[in-house]
Amino acid sequence: MGNSASGTVSVIDGATDAVTATVKVGALPYVVAANPTTNKIYVSKTFSNTMTVIDGATNATSNLKAGIQADAIAVNPLTNKLYLG
Question: Which is it for the CA torsion 34, 57, 1, 14, positive or negative?
Fold first, then answer.
């Protein structure tokens, strides 16, 4: 879940609904999508042409240029391709 005011994403345990971690991703996280095959989580940011990629195993982050402000993200876990719109 993206927390726009704090520039973070909350990691929630699906079994207990408890917040287990908070990951800093930068200003105004907007759309979140996950690839269950690679265990990567993609976070677009409002008014930014970048995305933050979170490693689901370690919560380590990296950034990539998106080229556009992504209002929608789709992940194909069979091809490991990410689609932005």
Answer: positive
**How many structural domains is the chain composed of?**
1
Distance CA 68, CA 48 (A): 8
- Name the pTM for this structure: 0.90
* CA-closest candidate to residue 75, choices 48, 40, 49, 50: 40
Distance CA 41, CA 54 (A): 5
CA–CA dist 58, 22 (Å, integer): 12
Average pLDDT over residues 46-69: 89
Q: What is the pLDDT of residues 24-35, one digit of tens each?
A: 999 889 889 999
| Containing structural domain, residue 29 | 2-84
Cβ 19 vs Cβ 8: under 8 Å: no
Beta strands 50-55 and 40-45, pairing class: antiparallel
